[in-house]
Amino acid sequence: MNIHEYQAKELFDRFSVPSPKGKAASTPKEAYDAAKWLAVNHLVVKAQVHAGGRGKGVFKNGFKGGVHLVESPEAAREIAASMLGETLVTKQTGEAGRLVRKVMIAESVTIQRELYLAILMDRQSCMPVIIVSTEGGMDIEEVAEKTPEKILREFVNPLAGLQAYQVRKICQALGLQTTARQFGRLLHSLYKLFIDCDCSMVEINPVVVTTDDHVYALDAKFNFDDNALYRHPEIQAMRDKEEEDPREVAAAEYDLNYIGLDGNIACLVNGAGLAMATMDIIKHHGGDPANFLDVGGGASKEQVAAAFKIILGDKAVQGIFINIFGGIMDCNIVAEGVVAAAKETGLSLPLVVRLEGNNVEAGKATLAASGLNIVAADGMDDGAKKIVAAVA
């Protein structure tokens, strides 16, 4: 789960991570009022969407930039009016862009230095890792490619926690002297936030050192462990479903794992590994998968039917490949769900089904008796060939 920048500021305030004051606004009038409330001459107006590269983005109405510096409440209102209700296209959104429903009005600061700071879970070491760089404000991927020596990684023992010597090591690597103590406090607060809120990633790009020697988290990107959100209802309430793919939102309501892709062959599979292999073999035979959809090992008839309907809700889909290997999963449950959903939606697309494993004969009998135009596959490779040929 992701949150907006203005919501990240709320978490910063809760955990005493220093950040310039700011307030969200959903109308130009609210933007004006927020600027008046801040009562400063130097302000920044930021479009609030779940995507990076906002500053260099372009709105479809021709307005350039999702981040603007202004010096009066009137100017903040004018900029907000140009952003709100408009679609912002950045390098991360693709051509479709993202609709801006809120902006954030915040104090701007005079920057002396920009630094990069992130904390994330490292799967290989099974520990949190702190990543810092002197090249703040840049894409960390670009820094890693061109100047990898400017990136420092510091692993934190989850039982011992962040140690003082590690903070000193990081400050030394960043060349911090007069502001080292401030940065250390920020880092300790951010690490506590990361652990207490079950984050999978916190990225601040940039952390800034101002001309008057203050350290602030200027921008923030959060990811949370979905499996731990039940412990944080206050964070779960921050979820903005309008920023998410509606197909993925619908899938989550049925505990299905769905990710939309750009192809035209939909996949319905049980098991993440099999789903990845299915997408690969479709690509191998010249097709383009339209989604990753894992119904899991113990899906019910209703879940399978819901998955099928989500697939059919994608207008780009021209064919469907169902690839089930029944271990825990009962092949007949899958067959019943597919038949029910196909009849309800009036399926007219090519459908190739490969069933193998637990109760497979009953599943095949259910499909055969359905009266639907279903192409049976003898294996995964055979099924991929048939569905690619059917949509060609």
Could you characterize what this model shows?
The chain is elongated and about 75 Å long. Helix content is 35%, strand content 25%. The protein is an alpha+beta fold and 392 residues long. Strands 8, 9, 10, 11, 12 and 13 form a six-stranded antiparallel β-sheet that branches. Strands 1-7-2-4 form a four-stranded antiparallel β-sheet, with helices on both faces. A four-stranded parallel β-sheet has the order 15-17-18-19, sandwiched between helices. It has helices at 5-14, 28-38, 73-83, 140-146, 164-173, 180-196, 233-236, 246-253, 272-284, 301-312, 331-345, 360-368, 380-391; strands spanning 22-25, 43-47, 58-59, 67-70, 87-89, 98-99, 103-107, 111-122, 127-133, 151-155, 199-210, 215-217, 221-224, 257-260, 265-269, 291-294, 319-326, 351-357, 374-376. Helix 11 (331-345) packs parallel to helix 12.
